[in-house]
Amino acid sequence: MSLISFIKEAGEKLFNLGKPDAIAAAAPAELAALNQKAADAIRAYIQTQNLDVQNLAVSYDGASMAVTVSGTAADQATREKVVLCCGNVSSVEKVNDQLTVSAASEEARFYTVKSGDTLSRISKEMYGDASKYSVIFEANKPMLKDPDRIYPGQMLRIPPLA
């Protein structure tokens, strides 16, 4: 369980809560509804990725731009992918990972994409071998659909080499 930081402006645009001033001035009931709308959008996004998580629960706090996610992931890779699904969303700055795993394994490292990065360049930096880019691509499926479509601010899983 940990708190992981992300770049709030980067990522999937799953919801639009409105302007920050309007959100700050919203009545408590309206704010709760906006937070629930965001949480539902993030949960639906995770489900579209077909990640195996039992009792998945997602909440969003717009004031802190934080997502809390809990449940039981099938394995460590699934856990990390769920956290990335939550964090690689515009308007999310932190993910409070409260997931557990059924089958423990070695944790991956995380890498935040910089302008000009390619999976080959990241692979060269992380593994010392640019040709291992496919390991990074496979580790980030189904969120990544194309190895040439990454963006600055996106966080990726960098699994240990087998």
If you had to describe this structure to a student in words, what would you say it looks like?
By secondary structure, this protein is α+β, with helices and mostly antiparallel strands. The chain folds into 2 domains: 2-103, GMP Synthetase, Chain A, domain 3, CATH 3.30.300; 109-158, LysM domain (Membrane-bound Lytic Murein Transglycosylase D, Chain A, Roll), CATH 3.10.350.10. 33% of the residues lie in helices and 25% in strands. The protein contains 5 helices and 6 strands. The protein has helices at residues 20-24, 28-48, 76-87, 119-127, 133-139, and strands at 2-5, 53-61, 66-75, 94-103, 109-112, 155-158. The strands form 2 sheets. The chain has a 4-stranded mixed beta sheet with strand order 1-4-3-2. A two-stranded antiparallel ribbon has the order 5-6. Helix 3 links the parallel strand 3 and strand 4 (94-103). The longest helix is centred in the first third of the chain and has 21 residues, at 28-48.
Shape: globular
User: Roughly what percent helix?
Assistant: 25-40%
Tell me what the CATH architecture of the largest domain is: 2-Layer Sandwich
- The proportion of residues in beta strands is 25-35%
Report how far apart the termini are.
25 Å
Which sequence of SSEs, written as H and E, runs from N to C? EHHEEHEEHHE
Number of domains as seen in the coordinates: 2
How would you write the strand order of the largest sheet? 1-4-3-2
Spans where pLDDT lies below 50 across 5 or more residues? none
Q: Mind summarizing the main beta sheet?
A: 4 strands, mixed
Structural class: alpha+beta
Rounded mean pLDDT is 91
Count of individual beta strands: 6
How many helical elements? 5
Looking at how many chains there are and whether they match, the oligomeric state comes to single chain
Rg (C-alpha, Å): 16 Å
